[in-house]
Structure formats: C-alpha cells, structure tokens
Amino acid sequence: MKAYTKQQLALRNGQDKPEIWVAFKGTIYDVSASRLWKNGKHYEHWAGQDLTNELKDAPHTEKVFQKFESIGFLID
C-alpha cells in the first residue's frame, strides 16, 4: 500500500479532489462510494481527516471500516 501524508489526506475531502478518504488507526479508507459520506461530510465528521479519536462518539464500532477499501497508510 502507498503512504500518504496528512496534507495529502486532507485534499481527499470531497471538495478539493473527487476522492473521499478518511483515516483510522493509520489506515486510509476510500469512502467515496458511500452515500453517507456525500460531499465529504458524515454527520459531524469531515472527510480528509484521521477519525481515530472521533470513533468513540460514533454509534458504530470500528468494524464499519471493513466495508471500505483500504488504499494506503498515513504517515506524519
């Protein structure tokens, strides 16, 4: 898998580039096909970010990421 910086991830926010990506525990997922991430927003969460610390407030577990293709990993 390819490595991406936080700046590269930030561009995949559904606004700057057509891809909609999020990161969780160092893995980047492509959520572009999800109707729940339309325009890069999912409830109060924004795409192009690391959502690791935000999952504790979500009504679902981390198993939700199994639905999406992992396309890379996040580096500093």
From TrEMBL:
Organism: Belliella buryatensis
Residue intervals of the Cytochrome b5 heme-binding domain: 4-75
InterPro entries tied to this protein: Cyt_B5-like_heme/steroid-bd, Cyt_B5-like_heme/steroid_sf
Gene3D superfamilies the UniProt entry points to: Cytochrome b5-like heme/steroid binding domain
Top-level division of the source organism's lineage: Bacteria
Pfam families reported in the protein's UniProt record: Cyt-b5 (PF00173)
Name the record gives this protein: Predicted heme/steroid binding protein
